[in-house]
UniProtKB/TrEMBL annotation:
Gene3D superfamilies: Vaccinia Virus protein VP39 (3.40.50.150). GO terms for biological process: methylation. Residues 44-137 form the Methyltransferase type domain. SUPFAM superfamilies: S-adenosyl-L-methionine-dependent methyltransferases (SSF53335). The keyword Transferase applies. This is Class I SAM-dependent methyltransferase. InterPro entries: Methyltransf_11, SAM-dependent_MTases_sf, Thiol_S-MT.
Length: 214
């Protein structure tokens, strides 16, 4: 059966680049911050090659990791075997999560909302599968604060960037989208990766916690 998402060249590039960013670019620290204090059942969408798995705290009883791209899913499955918490890597897309409603204590979206084809629908699915009061942990890149940089991002999104980078869009506003989907933002902070030196179209990041209302 043909995979819904199929980006083999980008998957190979991302698998190498993400490890470099974790070890040399400080992204592993953001992953630890993202997942700190989680407990119970967790669903992670767009798990990629599974770099989050090593940072889940022991209080997490189960992670169901959704990854649509075959090569990345294989790498994630290998990473799941090394994790200190139970991880089940399964195929699927964020817009149609193959799990029951209100089944999870927390959801994790990590550098994935840029690539989903239907962002409102994906966030609606995350809200559906969370129990009332459940947390959405998010670590995403998005639109820049400055007008010139944001304009450049929008031009890239309309031209070559999604084609070259596995459907990635640089000018989305994940925080606004999360609020529009009915989540309550509990906390967030913005930063740049890398913190020093020239910015790239994907440098402008936000990390935070949102909750599904009771």
């Amino acid at each position: 059966m043909r995979d819904t998402v199929h980006h083999p060249l980008f998957a190979r590039f991302y698998a190498r680049m993400s490890v470099t960013m974790d070890t040399r670019g400080g992204v592993a620290g953001y992953r630890r911050e993202l997942l700190a204090g989680l407990s119970g059942r967790v669903i992670e969408v767009g798990a990629g090659n599974g770099l989050n798995f090593a940072h889940y705290p022991a209080a997490v009883s189960e992670v169901v990791a959704i990854e649509p791209e075959r090569r990345l899913r294989q790498l994630a499955a290998t990473a799941g075997l090394r994790a200190d918490v139970p991880v089940d890597v399964v195929p699927g897309v964020a817009e149609a999560l193959p799990v029951k409603s209100e089944a999870y204590d927390a959801a994790v979206a990590s550098l994935v909302l840029c690539t989903v084809r239907d962002l409102p629908r994906a966030l609606g699915e995350l809200r559906r599968v969370l129990r009332p009061g459940g947390e959405l942990r998010f670590f995403e890149h998005g639109v820049a604060g400055g007008r010139a940089a944001a304009t450049a991002q929008r031009v890239l999104d309309r031209t070559v960037w999604p084609l070259l980078f596995g459907g990635c869009h640089t000018a989305r506003d994940p925080l606004a989208a999360i609020e529009a989907a009915g989540f309550e933002i509990a906390s967030h902070r913005r930063f740049r990766i890398p913190e020093q030196g020239p910015a790239t179209p994907t440098s402008f990041c936000v990390l935070g916690v949102a909750r599904r209302p009771d």
